[in-house]
Amino acid sequence: MHIVDLASRPDLADAALDLGDVGGQFIYAGMSGKIITVERFLRHWGRYFLIALEDDVPIARTLSVPLAFPADDRTELPDHGWDEAIQWAAQDKMDGRAPNALCALEVVIDPKHRGRHLSSEMLKALKARAQETGLSRLIVSVRPIGKEDEPKTPMAEYVNRRRPDGLFADRWLRTHERLGAKMVKICPFAVTISGSFADWWEWAGIDLVDGDNLFPGGIAPIIASAERDYGVYVEPNVWMEHPM
């Protein structure tokens, strides 16, 4: 296996995207998700879109964006997590502001190659890329993978679960922890997506009803109102920082 980036191998874009999505395509339907298109990565952040190859075939990808943190106007990681990190990166690009940190947005592994610790290898590659490009932090708005099985459990309760060896009970949080990452805080509004009943059917094949709607890939319910014709999804994540 070797790792390349989108800047050097733009021809791999479609194959890398075909590996799947984190939780589901609906994640990219929000206002922040719409910012991180392949075209924008090619134009602005190609070195931070990494692709793992075997026999020149993508088997994993990871996306990240450089941003300024900490800064005079950014003294804490945002409660709006993934959403606001993407907005910070876009603002910095428009303002010509030099980044000093790298924020990982997703790690996706080909289902046929899971169980090979590729997620850890991709995170290590992100850390190396941050160092190579003069960035001093690697931060991640982590979406705990096991939370999909408990969408109604408060995140504070979920992340406080530990195994007898002291490590996180959640395996994705545990992967980060084993690489030395520390939990900074919960970001309660990491991803917010709103749309009509028809939108949600298009995004995720969900036929919404009044009240809480649980659905595959979600780690929180969609709160819906038929009278107002909208459904709102607010996903909590966990900010973690990797040592450099």
UniProtKB/TrEMBL annotation:
* GO terms for MF: acyltransferase activity, transferring groups other than amino-acyl groups
Superkingdom in the source lineage: Bacteria
Pfam families assigned to the protein according to its UniProt record, in alphabetical order: Acetyltransf_1 (PF00583)
**Domain N-acetyltransferase, chain residue ranges per copy:** 91-142
Under the heading InterPro entries, the entry gives: Acyl_CoA_acyltransferase, GNAT_dom
By what name is this protein known? Answer: N-acetyltransferase domain-containing protein
Species of origin reads Kibdelosporangium aridum
